[in-house]
Structures are given as structure tokens and as C-alpha cells.
Amino acid sequence: MIYDISVTALIFFFIFVGLVLGLSFYFGRKKSDSSSYYAAGGQIHWAVNGIAFAGDYLSAASFLGICGMIAVAGFDGFLYAIGFLAGWIVALFLIAEPFKRLGKYTFTDALNAKFNSRAITLAASVSTLIISVFYLIPQMVGAGDLVMPLLGLPHWAGVILVGAIVITIVASAGMASTTYVQFLKGGLLIILSLILTVFILKNGLSLSPSTKDNTYHQFITLNPQLEGTKVTAAPGWQVLAQQETAGKTFVKLQQNGVERWFYLGKEDGKDVLKETLTIVQRTNGEKLYNGESKEKRKFYQVGHLSKIIVNGKEVDKTGAVGPFEFLSTIKDSEITRFLQVKLTDGTDQVTLYYPEVTAGAKFMLPGLKYKIGAGASLWSKLDFVSLMLALFLGTAALPHILIRYYTVKTPRDARKSTILAIAAIGGFYILTLFIGLGAGVNGVMDVESSNMAAPLLAKAFGAVLFSIISAVAFATVLGTVAGLIVASSGAIAHDFIDIYLKKNLSDDRKVKVGKIAAVAVGVFAILLGMAFKGINVSFLVGWAFAIAASANLPAILFLLFWKRTSSTGIAASIVVGIVVSLAIILTSPTMWDKYGLGAENAWHQMENPALISFPLAVLTVYLFSILYPKKELKVQEV
Amino acid sequence: MHVNSTTEEKEIVTQQKSKLGVRLFFVYLICYAGFVAIGVFNYELLSTTVFYGLNLAIAYGIGLIVFAVIMGIIYNSYCTRYEDEAEKAEGGLK
């Protein structure tokens, strides 16, 4: 996709990013050491803390990923919203208060509060590092996507840009992710989403979704002549070739020297050729978008309603609608989505996006990504259950989430801010349903990446809204990436080298090692961000949640609720959780596709590992605690 | 460092809160698992229109989000009551 750069958008973008970064530095300088960070945290009002909680949690996955997946796969994207929020229930009801009573601030410290075991230190630091890296991948992918339409840079340049900014900040100054910055970011994200939703509802639904800032391409349909199943002629075009793949027929046509692919489908019982979007990769490195170079801008944004039904009657547009009317009208209408297939044409690699009319009733149900209806395979049903389990159990086990629970003075305030956070995040997630659906039917989708659904929808409504939303999303990514890199470098420098290897580093050396670790993790994250281009960021975050749920949660729950839990049990469970979940992810169809081996050839068809790795980790902590019971406590029980 | 103000909390209050948390967790777990189970075992049910033209999938999904907030508020009000009662009892003893 190639985007026009808007100067207004750029100006607003830089002002906003500058403002957020400036504030981070300002507060970061004031409270640079960890103890004053917590002490200052103790004075923070619960309501500010609650919105800051939301700011912490709503990373690129929530805003970019969920909206994008809803736009492409309908209700299946909303599953992430449901699961992400449900995870807070585990955090609030089971983990938060007992953790606060342990008086520890990080998972490694809390897990080790009763044992002081080197094995736990090692296992927990490795798990923190791996979860952070898996959480970093989607942030980097999202960053690259965001930068493309704003600055007109390619994806890889966006990833490097974000990586370089964050590495510089972390390695030179250290960036404290402060409560007030997160409060500002969280608050802005929620307000902007509300504004965007109002725009969507006011705009209503239309068959030709053009706005003043976005003219929608009218896709052509040709009436071909066929001999049997073979297309022999198409009016105004020369027929060049025909191929079948994944049960669909595609025909290559030529007009004025430009080669285009069409999809042979049916309309009112008649055979028709429908225009597709095509990317052709030549062996000489040349890439053609709809048969021409990228700069010709013949690669369009997509996603529209092909039929609108209101109260049983077909209409061209609805005008302004209410929230329930919006949802029910889409349910009763028909949506044209663009689905991807790949084929080989001689030596050319062709990626096709063909129009598929989907009934609204189907779009508003789970099943387009996670097939669970009639005829679904056992694998895909298990995958659905596994995803829901990972999302439910992952939140409470993410290393960076619960820390904010300790930044208010009293347990009452902590509870109140958590509940405000749940309300704010829940409200935001309900809005993502409208934003995602709005993006799916308003002709703004970039077929190469679903992650830009929300910002591109904002762009259709005006450059200013687009730039502010992109700036907040960009700042969100920067903040999350910085936080994760700090956490990973801490796991390497503090937990592993200093404590586990007992190097007893001086303060200066410790800082130096931490900075080297931050740069290394940052570079690694940049490479992974480039490698995972085009994959939905919520899907990627689903992996981080699954690893967190498997590696950390069994250990935490047993530590809090079962007195016989031993240090060996905890360490073994973390190791089993990590190894099993990683093994399943690395052999999953998505990874097989990334390795170039074809998704269908993968060893198994499970995308999310939690359903297998979580129970195994639970079993491990139980069995190892019985086989290797705890020795006398080195630290008095709290 | 931030003072851990819960250390002085009475054991009985801690137990009450913990028990309540576990109970509410299971209530939510059942509702959440119910959604997943309908999806896997009785998928067609999710397409039933329930109100305002919304299908069960959307209504249940939004319902789970709203329910989480309501559960949070219930949990908070009970915990606050336990803490207040304990404080009052302590005040009465003095």
C-alpha cells in the first residue's frame, strides 16, 4: 500500500509525540530511582492511577490489533476484547491483594519471597525475558504499520525508527513509564475512540463509502464467455491465463499492456469476473501492485457493504444510526471482504486479494478466523478454547501489569483504581467493536496489514483526527516498548548476571551491563518486528499471553493458594510452561508459513498453545512439589 | 519505599476478602466458560437474536465486559464493608 503524506497530519503528529515524550522525560528525570518512583506512587490519587492502569494495558494490541481483526474477521476480533478484559477478573479477585500482602513488586521477587532460590531466579528471569520479547514483537510490527501512512516510509524503516528512538532513550537516560504519562495516554485513547465512534455512527452505512478525504474505488465486474469452466473472452480485455487454487478460479487478463488478475465468481447465478487486488513478486526483485509500479497508486483500500438491509428493506445508505441499529443493520446486511490467496504464475509469486461476499449474520458471529461452527475440525475448536484460556489467564501473569497495583497508598485505593481501570478498559473494548466494524465497511482497509484499521478509518474522517490518533498510538507503542526493554534488560543484568551468576557488580558496571542488554534486546526486537510484518498484532499478543499464562500463572496460584508448594515445583513449572508453549508456537501453522514451509504442512494445526501448556505447567508444579517438598524456609513467611 | 499498609490488616478480614475473591472468580469463570462452551458445543445458538436486533454472541460478549465491571464494584463494596466492620470492632475494643 502506498499512502499520501499529509502535512497537517505530520505537524499534529510531531506536536503530540513531542508532548508525550517531553512529559515522559520531565517526570522521568524527577523520579529516576525506583524507590522514589514507588514513594511518589504512594501519593497518587486512585482515579488517576486507574486511568494510568488502562494506559499501561491498552498497548498496540488493543487499539490497532483488535480493531483490525474485527474489520477483517468480524466477531473473532472481539473475542480478544472479551478475553483481555476477563483476564482482569483473575488479576483482581485472585492475585492482586495476596501479592500486595507479600509486599513484593515484581514476579521474580514475589515468587522468591518465601524461598530465596537460585533456580527460581533463573527460571523467572528467563520467563520475564521471553514474555517481554513476545510482547515486543507485536509492538514493533504495529510501530512499522503506523509509520507507513504517516511518514510514507516502508514498514522496516518504521520498525528501525521506533527501535532506534527507544534504544537511545533507554540507553542514554532511562525512561520511567510514569503514572501521569500513562494517565494522559490512556485518557486520550479512550476519548479519541469515543469521538471516532460518534463519527462512525453519524456517518451511518452506505454502499459507496466515500468521504471527503477518501474516494472509494468502484471495483469492476466483467461478464466473460466460458467454454466449460475455461474463460475464453472478456469484454475489453485479452485473456492470458487461468489458474485454480484453494478451490477458487483466477483469470489473468491484459488491457493496455497492464496485466490484472480477476476472480471467477457467481452473481445472481451468472458467471462473472471480479476485480482483485494483486501483488506480483518477480524474480528480478520487481514488485507490481495491480500490474503496475507502487507509485502509480493503483492498489486500493477496501472493505464495503454490498447490500444494506434496514427493517427488511434494501437501501443504498442509512444516514446517522444509533449504536444498536448500527450493529443490527450490519448483522442483516452483506459485507464484501477481501481474502488472501497465493499462487505461482511461471516464475512470479502472486498474492491475490479477492472479494468475498459474507453475510452480516456470519460476520457478527465467531468462526471466520477460529472455525467452531458445524463441520469445524477438532483442531480449530481446540484452538478457540486455547485462545480463550490464554487471554483469560494471561493478563494476571504479565510481568509489567500488576506493578501499578502498588502505586496507591491503601488497599482500598488499589481496589478502586483497578475497578476504574476495568470500567475504562471495558468501555474502550466495546468501542473497538464499533471502530473495527466501521473500518471494515467504510472502505479504508489496507489488505497488506489489518493493523491500521483504526487510524485509516480516522484518516477518512479527517487529517487532524488521523494524526492525533496516530500520535497517541505511536506514543503508546514507544512507552510499551521502552517499558518492555527496561524489563528485559533488568531480567538479564539484575536477575541473571548479578543475582544468579553472583557477579556482585558495582553500581556502575550494573548500569553498563543493563544498557548493553537493552541495546541487544532492542536490536533483536527490531529484527523480529521486520520478520513478523503483516501479522495481526492481537494474534501475536495472544502468544505472549499464552506463554505468560503457562510459565507464570500456575507458579503464582500455587504459591498463593497451596501451602505445600516447593521452590523446585515453582522452578520446574516455569520451565515446563515456557518450553511447551514455545515448542507449540514455533511449530504452529503461522510459523511454518513464516519458515516458507506452508501453513498446511505444519506438524499440528494449533495456533495458541495455552490449552496444552497451562495444564502441563499446573501438573508440574503439583508433582514436583510433592516429589521435592520444600525445605525449611529461609525467609520468614509473611 | 512504599509502606505496605496491609500488614496490619486483621487475619479474619484477609480471609473474608480472599474467600469472596475466589467465589466471585468462580462465578465469572462459569459465565466465561459458558460462552466458550456455547461456541464449541451449540454454535448455532449464538446466532439467535436476543434484543435490539443483536445476536446472542454480541449480547453475551458485551454482557461479559459489563458484568466484569459490576463484579468489580460488588467485590469492592464487600471488601470495604469487611474492612470498616473490622475497624469499628477494633475501635469498640479500645
Helix content of chain B: over 70%
Structural class of chain A: alpha+beta
Helix content of chain A: 55-70%
Figure out the total of helices of chain B. 2
Please give the largest β-sheet of chain B.
2 strands, antiparallel
Integer average pLDDT of chain B: 85
Kindly list the characteristics that best describe this protein.
heterodimer; A: 638 residues; alpha+beta; Sodium/glucose cotransporter; 2 domains; seven-stranded antiparallel sheet; five-stranded antiparallel sheet; 16 strands; globular; B: 94 residues; mainly alpha; two-stranded antiparallel ribbon; 2 helices; disordered N terminus
What's the topology here?
The complex is a heterodimer of chains A (638) and B (94).
Chain A: H1 7-30, H2 34-41, H3 46-57, H4 60-73, H5 75-102, H6 107-111, H7 118-151, H8 155-172, H9 179-203, E1 205-206, E2 221-222, E3 225-227, E4 230-233, E5 238-245, E6 248-255, E7 258-267, E8 270-275, E9 277-281, E10 287-289, E11 302-310, E12 313-315, E13 317-319, H10 323-332, E14 334-345, E15 348-359, H11 360-363, H12 378-394, H13 411-441, E16 442-445, H14 453-461, H15 463-500, H16 507-531, H17 537-551, H18 553-561, H19 567-586, H20 589-594, H21 610-627
Helix pairs in contact in A: 1-9, 1-15, 3-9, 3-13, 4-5, 4-7, 4-13, 4-17, 5-12, 5-13, 7-8, 7-15, 7-16, 7-17, 7-19, 8-15, 8-16, 9-13, 9-15, 12-17, 12-21, 13-14, 14-15, 15-16, 17-19, 17-21, 18-19, 18-21, 19-21
Chain B: H1 11-41, E1 49-51, E2 54-55, H2 56-93
Antiparallel strand pairs in B: 1-2
Helix pairs in contact in B: 1-2
Structure write-up:
The complex is a heterodimer of chains A (638) and B (94). Chain A is of the alpha+beta class. Chain A folds into two domains: 447 residues, Sodium/glucose cotransporter, CATH 1.20.1730; 158 residues, no CATH class. Chain A contains 21 helices and 16 strands. In chain A, the strands form four sheets. In chain A, strands 9, 10, 11, 12, 14, 15 and 16 form a seven-stranded antiparallel beta sheet that branches. In chain A, strand 6 and strand 7 form a beta hairpin. In chain A, helix 5 packs parallel to helix 12 and helix 12 packs across helix 21. Chain A is globular. Chain A starts with 6 loop residues before the first helix and ends in an 11-residue tail after the last helix. In chain B, helix 1 packs antiparallel against helix 2. A two-stranded antiparallel sheet of chain B has the order 1-2. Chain B is elongated. The longest helix of chain B has 38 residues. In chain B, a hairpin with a 2-residue loop joins strand 1 and strand 2. Chain B is mostly helical and 94 residues long. In chain B, 20% of the residues are buried. Chain B has one domain. At the A-B interface, helix 2, helix 5, helix 10, helix 12 and helix 13 of A face helix 1, strand 2 and helix 2 of B.
